[in-house]
Amino acid sequence: MINKVLVANRGEIALRVIRTCRELGIPTVAVYSTADADSMHRLLADEAVCIGPPPAVRSYLNIPAIISAAELTGADAIHPGYGFLAENARFAEICERCGIKFIGPSSEVISKMGDKAAARRIAWEAGVPITPGSEGVCSDAGEVRRVAREVGYPIVLKASAGGGGKGMRVVRSEEELEAALTAARAEAEAAFGSGAVYVERFVERLRHVEVQVLADAHGNTVAFPERDCSVQRRYQKLIEESPAPGLEPELRGRMQDAAVALAEEIGYEGAGTVEFVLADGEFYFMEMNTRLQVEHPVTEMVTGADLVAEQIRVAAGERLGEHNLEPVGHAMEFRINAEDPRRNFLPQTGPVEFYNPPGGPGVRVDSHLYTGYTITPYYDSLLAKLVVWAEDRAAVVRRSLRALEEFAFTGVETTIPLHMAILEDEEFARGGVPTGFLAARSFQSSEGRLRLSAAARAAS
Amino acid sequence: MINKVLVANRGEIALRVIRTCRELGIPTVAVYSTADADSMHRLLADEAVCIGPPPAVRSYLNIPAIISAAELTGADAIHPGYGFLAENARFAEICERCGIKFIGPSSEVISKMGDKAAARRIAWEAGVPITPGSEGVCSDAGEVRRVAREVGYPIVLKASAGGGGKGMRVVRSEEELEAALTAARAEAEAAFGSGAVYVERFVERLRHVEVQVLADAHGNTVAFPERDCSVQRRYQKLIEESPAPGLEPELRGRMQDAAVALAEEIGYEGAGTVEFVLADGEFYFMEMNTRLQVEHPVTEMVTGADLVAEQIRVAAGERLGEHNLEPVGHAMEFRINAEDPRRNFLPQTGPVEFYNPPGGPGVRVDSHLYTGYTITPYYDSLLAKLVVWAEDRAAVVRRSLRALEEFAFTGVETTIPLHMAILEDEEFARGGVPTGFLAARSFQSSEGRLRLSAAARAAS
Amino acid sequence: MSELRERTARERAGAEGDQEESLPLETVRQVVELLVESGVGEITVRRGELEVSVKAKGEAAPVVQPAFQRSEAPAAPETPDSGPEWEGLHVVRSPIVGTFYRAPAPGEEPYVEVGDRVSAGQTLCIVEAMKLMNEIPSEVAGVVREILVEDTSGVQYDQPLFVIEPEE
Amino acid sequence: MSELRERTARERAGAEGDQEESLPLETVRQVVELLVESGVGEITVRRGELEVSVKAKGEAAPVVQPAFQRSEAPAAPETPDSGPEWEGLHVVRSPIVGTFYRAPAPGEEPYVEVGDRVSAGQTLCIVEAMKLMNEIPSEVAGVVREILVEDTSGVQYDQPLFVIEPEE
């Protein structure tokens, strides 16, 4: 039983959790920084506690303040959302020690999967395909050179503590190796406090395809239809969809099986995502995210599941419910960020003068915005997630264009024009673009509208 | 082929049609009265034509203005929405004569079904069950008395040209008959220009259950899962849901078959709804609405169909697509009207100071509102339709409460508090309430919240 | 109330010496005029015991402008309410939706030209709707200053057609 | 500006006879003009008994208030920013989330009572967070005028705890 949930997050994901808790009849506690006093998550929760000043390290990353807020309000569970403390093993451990249920896997599992080199080894042990590369962290330049010769160039160096492209370097020949290793290590050290790196063969033209898993404490694990998250900008996902265009059911089944095998291998509990590289019809383990993902709604749209409700039920010790594991129709999510795509994604702050989200059939909006809300510079730039469902992918593309056109938003620039440009791109319309899709294109304005044009340099 | 659609309506339904046209790549023409210059349907359509001053008779009911607008803009089809000219056979006929495709059935079919007494006879001929009563219009008091004796009291007198409860009288004994007949005829004459009435046995405790049909010009007709629209106030629907609580699949199948039989009997084309009385496990034909209904989204939510898209495809001569005719999960629609339920549903007008619709999983909002919109006194009071889907009815009730609580709306009073009160009613929660449900209850305010209490007088 | 009246009376009595005293309404009026003319928000002037303070009317309730954008430039006809302000001039607007004709029939002379003097009730044009020719009369006598719509183009309800300078 | 001063002086001289009398409207007009030209928000000029103050019209961007309503009265702790305005007084706020204790240990005397004189740096209370006792000092010397939180209750970040009247 969970009696009261503290939501250790802000923005749309805090709202997402509050919504489901309300539907389940569980009271919620919002925590907020002084910058978020007028935020919807504060206003819609049953209780709210101010936990610190605007900088996240002093509020949303402030573990003592959050634990104190849970104790003061009698919350017996904490939902971390995504980002902030969601994959912080120490936070999960402190929750465990304080007798507060952390809604997610155990601190031990978070810790294991947080070490990307170790996770790779575990995946391999569970029989999940991995790209050729080092078995774990490489101890020195000599070992990197040896592994690189074995698997063949190009290779990619990755930070073991990393994520999001930091501490990552593509190396195309042995001459580049030394300098790239030094740079990757320094970057990893600066970003994560650990310079440990490992080696993988670099896959040139890949798609990012991931599988959502859900596991209860009674040994039941299910894997949902995959999400294709290949439309990215600098390793930041922009558009996600389910199912992945053109994926054969047989391959889907194998990916689902692999994800379940990994989750079972580590004794996973709760919602998690196994990320794969898809290249030339084969898939390889990339990493596992031990939390709810931003893009979880696309899975909800094609299966009817409520993943947050399932997270909470599983955390309360209940068994997994029945789930539809075949996609029905097609869904896409568009991340609407406070960034100006016409000015190199310059972050935007300030008041939202007018806000009116689209409605009608097949349209879901998850957002903490409202007319009059002020975007502050302290947190991430995600303003709204537009999630669109229709009976097939072509219909989703058309409906999404309609919804984006209808999305009324003034006061700040957003990524809405970029999404519309992507939807009008021919290669995107065919489906199955690689992760280099956006980098290979330049942006042009024509008749006040943003358009993509295939640039000279090839997709990488 | 349809090249351009003029939407002869306003408010949320005009927006609904514009949205689907945009998704189908068909340009739209909005028509608007001077009172609606700042309306979303005007702002979101590709073109817009001002057709008259605020009173509907001079704008949205002004046939020459609408036809002229279609001719000026080159629109080759007109979607009438619901209300206004949607069931006006003369308008459909004028469209036919002007070579403009009226998106709906032929003027002949509209005319036939508009005569309620004739429609009853046609249903009977098609083998659809009807309540015992007169075969058609009763010529005089003597005939009414004879039929009433045959079917037994109580009986109900209904206006043949009618709808919405006007010209309707329940008669419980022969003594009341004469006066009731005079009153019903006078009311019908005043409202519809025809005093013709017919007689039906009055069913005391009934549910209003209706079946959505869709037929193409090639002889294909399908019937969707039923909608239960029994939560009404003075014959105005307030909440609709699909499927009908507790309805056996076998009975659903028979109702669907009956609806298809009627549609085929009259050569129906397009979207229409066959309304039934459901009493004691049996159903009887009530009337057929030859248009899109307000509550069509609940059917869309449980089947994934886009009924407006299908209307347009069928109007363009295409064949019906594949449809899922079994309900998946459960859906409810809440009509949010500009009426104050605490003050006898006093109509509300004025500016909407703040408007923020709910979002998140399973929530669809169809509305023409925005922060700063002004509600005028000229048209109907429907402001927004909240449509909620979840895996079963209990989950829909919980999710709906969540969404209604989240619906931010200031400046005018709405029916939101009433919907919340209904959702908390025990009989409603059990499901399958009769049409007398709301009339049998009084409203009470407790802790600032509206609540229903079963009043002394019985449901009627 | 009575106390207040007494006090006022007493004060007035005390002020008797300095002429009519009471309030210098003429000065107030001048400050008000200054405020209105200048468009500033508030003026306060004090000298010794006299103080005059005038404030402009509070800003109207905040109005949020709907900001919906269509993807393409809309091909919509000119909206009826747009157009320049015609101060002191009379604007003839279309009472119906239809097609605007300047002449009774194709090839014939237009009813009026810019510069023509027209009398009240004189036909200015035809707006055709559903094959019906509706003659649109001038509501005033005056001189035609502008013809706002092209011959044979579509007009909406309330759309300005002619600008007429009325005769005094 | 110097011109203004001169003129004002002249007017004052001229106005001397009819005592305070009417107001120097010409001066006011000049101040108004200065305000409008300069685009500043407010000008106040005072010399001796004469004061002229002119404000521009409030620009205040339209502010839409979010209006979300929770179903039940929320059991939320008092929000940090609520409470009366303490003009001229010093408010000590909680730097952390935790439990407020007025005394060093249960059963002991409170650190301070209303009316006590406190010095800067003197401990006023403890806020406990995660078993750590955080002593909260007064930032100013003065007299404790109000204790805003009940002993052993929860406090949020930035929540006002004490009102202190600083010593001059």
TrEMBL record, chains A, B:
Q: Where is the ATP-grasp domain?
A: 120-316
Q: Which SUPFAM superfamilies match?
A: Glutathione synthetase ATP-binding domain-like, PreATP-grasp domain, Rudiment single hybrid motif
Q: Which Pfam families match?
A: Biotin_carb_C, Biotin_carb_N, CPSase_L_D2
Top-level EC class, please? ligase
Ribosomal protein in keyword set: no
Give this protein's Gene Ontology molecular function annotations. Answer: ATP binding; biotin carboxylase activity; metal ion binding
Query: What's the catalysed reaction?
Result: N(6)-biotinyl-L-lysyl-[protein] + hydrogencarbonate + ATP = N(6)-carboxybiotinyl-L-lysyl-[protein] + ADP + phosphate + H(+)
Sorted keywords for this record are: ATP-binding, Biotin, Fatty acid biosynthesis, Fatty acid metabolism, Ligase, Lipid biosynthesis, Lipid metabolism, Magnesium, Metal-binding, Nucleotide-binding
A GO term (biological process) for this protein? fatty acid biosynthetic process
Question: In this protein, which residues make up the domain named Biotin carboxylation?
Answer: 1-443
Which pathway does the database say it acts in?
Lipid metabolism; malonyl-CoA biosynthesis; malonyl-CoA from acetyl-CoA: step 1/1
How does this polypeptide assemble, per the annotation? Acetyl-CoA carboxylase is a heterohexamer of biotin carboxyl carrier protein, biotin carboxylase and the two subunits of carboxyl transferase in a 2:2 complex.
Q: What does it do?
A: This protein is a component of the acetyl coenzyme A carboxylase complex; first, biotin carboxylase catalyzes the carboxylation of the carrier protein and then the transcarboxylase transfers the carboxyl group to form malonyl-CoA.
Protein name in UniProt: Biotin carboxylase
Q: Which organism is it from?
A: Rubrobacter taiwanensis
Lineage per the UniProt record: Bacteria, Bacillati, Actinomycetota, Rubrobacteria, Rubrobacterales
Q: Which gene encodes it?
A: accC
